[in-house]
Amino acid sequence: MTHPAVKHIVIVGGGTAGWMTAAAMAKVLLGDFSIRLIESDDIGTVGVGEATIPQIRQFNQALEIDENDFVRQTQATFKLGIQFVDWGRLGDSYMHGFGILGRDRGLLSFHHYWLKAHLAGKVSAIGPYCLNVAAALHGKFMRPPDLGAESPLSSIAYAYHFDAGLYARYLRRFAEARGVRRTEGKVKETVLRPADGFIEAIVLDGGEKIPGDLFIDCSGFRGLLIEQALHTGYEDWTHWLPCDRALAVPCTSVGPPTPYTRSTAREAGWQWRIPLQHRIGNGYVYSSAHISDDEASARLLANLDGAPLSDPRPLRFVTGRRRKFWNRNCVAIGLAAGFMEPLESTSIHLIQSAVTMLLSFFPDQGFDPVMTDRFNEKSTMEWERIRDFLILHYHATERSDTTFWNDCRTMSVPRRLLDYMDLFRHSGRFYRENEELFTQTSWVQVMLGQRITPRSYHPLVDLLSDADLDAFIANVRHIIERCADTMPPHEKFIARYCAANPPA
Ligand SMILES: Cc1cc2nc3c(=O)[nH]c(=O)nc-3n(C[C@H](O)[C@H](O)[C@H](O)COP(=O)(O)OP(=O)(O)OC[C@H]3O[C@@H](n4cnc5c(N)ncnc54)[C@H](O)[C@@H]3O)c2cc1C
Description:
By secondary structure, this protein is an alpha+beta fold. The chain folds into 3 domains: about 10-50 and about 165-235 and about 320-365, FAD/NAD(P)-binding domain, CATH 3.50.50.60; about 100-155 and about 390-490, no CATH class; about 245-315, no CATH class. It has 15 helices and 21 strands. It has helices spanning about 15-30, 55-60, 65-75, 110-120, 130-135, 165-175, 225-230, 295-300, 345-360, 370-395, 405-410, 415-425, 440-450, 465-485, 490-495, and strands at about 10, 35-40, 75-80, 80-85, 95, 160, 180-185, 185-190, 200-205, 210, 215, 235, 245-250, 260-265, 270-275, 280-285, 315, 320, 325, 330, 340. The strands form 5 sheets. A 7-stranded mixed beta sheet has the order 5-4-14-15-16-13-17. The termini are far apart. It binds flavin-adenine dinucleotide. Flavin-adenine dinucleotide (FAD) binds near residues 17, 44, 49, 187 and 351. Flavin-adenine dinucleotide binds next to α1, β2, β13 and α9.
């Protein structure tokens, strides 16, 4: 039996999730559908979410957004990776660089060759063998030139730091220009069909009733449709990721913007530093069971580069996910779908991924469970793998200076993560499963950075003589240093191509 097509799409919420969804749908569905977005200026948006991962470029490219224009309009800077300070031990620092590590050789990944030399005491950290890391630490940036696979410069991978409010505004202009109809108003009621509990309409404060075929819940933490109306349920992950609060505060910049995010482990969580063109975004993500709000605030304010531009803004969350991301004719995207802390800047990516998957699973009005169940399975897999990657940062630590770190170090963690860590500890192996987001390069950098040192390396490395291995490793490092030297300073790159006007 065929079902009528979905024609009327209603998006509740105009934060990053709502406008990313609206923009992508307006672009792909080509005006053949009615798309309405309802948001309430009174309620406002969460207003954070400024660091991204390289996949966002695919999203912007799919929208055919001009990158320089986008960077200017959102006060953005470029991001080559994330620096982790004090995570494995106090005094430690490592970088999770995007892009590739060294140069693979034959069947083997570079890190196995590095590992043999490292275990023999000949070389220290792996960071200098990653162009993204070397460039980031020298404050360099350029887009990858098309020099072919031989040049590491071609492998530069990057993302952005941007002002979340300006990004939503940018996408709003994009979506409205392509027919999305925005309504300012507060949703006060959700009308369900008595027969099957599907959403029939939402009702605004002023009484307007907005019917639809497909409802996208982008209403933020409150999950207005997915939870308050459909009672979907929530899987709580705070026993693995105990941080449940954050304080966010922008401050003035005191130097050129670094082309990387910094995450500094603190006594009961961690502090982010996200440099934009016009300011630096900062925040302390912490566990309220381990530190008071006042102490967290004092700690945050004591660790800013420049003068604070406002009072710290408190945010509360429960790490976890909806039991179903798609329930009946409602799909939750963004914070309405769940939340994982921004340690690896994954939330905006999860929005992008959900929108892309929704377009791929675009339904008819039958909403066959064969489709929605698969959507939910794939989303669950993606969320759980990211969750495990985040847990790795907390669990694989030698820190024992506070109760928080002792609790994290000694907690039990998901079986799959234990298997990943055991395999890596055995001989530096990592095998990416299905389509999980983070690749071997990411896992290897973070596992090493968190002080998981493999006992051995891949046996095929021994096919190379010691002399050839030493020469290979030294050559890779030399080439990477030379490439980083040729790159322009990040601030000069921005000034040349995409400097934003100072904010009004
Ligand atoms: C502390 C913190 C730091 C973060 N940092 C990062 C980061 O660095 N990188 C990253 O990728 N992500 C980060 N995130 C996540 C990121 O902020 C969100 O994924 C992103 O902003 C999307 O939010 P949203 O649109 O789902 O919700 P919101 O921004 O909360 O928007 C909700 C929308 O729903 C509307 N709404 C709600 N109720 C109603 C109603 N009754 N009627 C009408 N409208 C309604 C509101 O008006 C608003 O427009 C962070 C999150 C937190 C909490």
